[in-house]
């Protein structure tokens, strides 16, 4: 690396794929976590943007055909300037950075300025968008090559498309940035000798929940696209392979294909539901609306832990959230408290979890809960615990500050010794970075519903979206408390039959799934 200044930053020119979050490469996903500053385009989907850790510096250089918010030269200058500050700069671009992404121009300046850089290829819309529309760009029977053409003007304002050559090739033609000139392109190909009935397709917002397509033939594809009011970003595909689209149309067959949901839990445990929904074909925007903060120092917890090993008889540890479980075990690790020390005394340690998600979190720590109530709520947990626990046992509740008061009365009534220890507090101050983007998406009806898994996530969301008419929100609620809170904000509510992630998934499938 001689010639490069010490301490120099570095730039990664990376592709983010065509929209579906899972088409992000492993490398770009890692760089999103590691970069100091992220410079991104308008084409990057909300599903991907909301993955960006909170403390990252962001620079939006949103650029769309016909609406150049930040000129290309300025973008290149920003990259150089940020790298010179010694930062790791991630330039996040739609699709692949070197396929009509002007990545070449950005690299030009970096090379000239001797800024270290890497190029991270991405999944390009040229092949991915047809694939999601059921169109293989090549096929042994009818297309032995495919050609990617831009419908955008060159630097001098001219568009040069060699229609006679394209028509002669006769294989698959993929046009990017061509929607505005669709009629002109079709006419050019027809005049160059292509048959009127050559299959053609236009695909809008490919790979995302908003994907729409029009399949027809070259002579009327423009008219059909207009009728369907196809908007950018869209790609045009011409060739026999378009005829496969209907029978190969797999995306719409996914149970939640075309659906988009928003989840609001804190990052550490939002992904389980999100993963399942994605598996069923939905796009899921994970946008935490609450934050949790560990209570530190925590003398009550220290005290409770110290005394636990000293006692004999039955001792219960009660967890009421997956976050509580992770805060507790992280705390043990940090204090270098060996789990054997906790369990090894003469006491018989029992563990209770409020619901299946909490029980699953405990399993990850190697503990299978002795008690999980059928119905997820604090009162029920208190009642069952009072019935199950030995009257002389000691119960330590490990949960959030200001947890539900309903848990305690049944235990007091049974005369059981209870200690309520707060491990963490919940702050209803979620991310505000994406409020504007989400507001737009909600207004356009692009988000089918918002999933809430606690009353605090409802409050956090309401606070985050202040000013937005919440009565328009379809709220999917895990249980009655959560629903009550959502109803307080006049949201349109649905509640899961069983208060668990399974219950939430069932509710979503029942309301939004195709049968
Ligand atoms: N570098 C990008 C292309 C940038 S040019 C890539 O490799 O995909 C922008 C054009 O790409 C758009 O005008 C549109 O033609 C196409 N495009 C990008 N994402 C798309 C999507 N999700 N659906 C349809 N077309 C898309």
From TrEMBL:
One of its GO terms (biological process) is methylation. Coiled coil: none annotated. Residues 10-221 form the Tetrapyrrole methylase domain. Residues 272-504 form the Tetrapyrrole biosynthesis uroporphyrinogen III synthase domain. Keywords: Methyltransferase, Porphyrin biosynthesis, S-adenosyl-L-methionine, Transferase. It comes from the Bacteria. Its EC number is 2.1.1.107. This is uroporphyrinogen-III C-methyltransferase. The lineage of its organism: Bacteria, Bacillati, Bacillota, Clostridia, Lachnospirales. The gene is cobA.
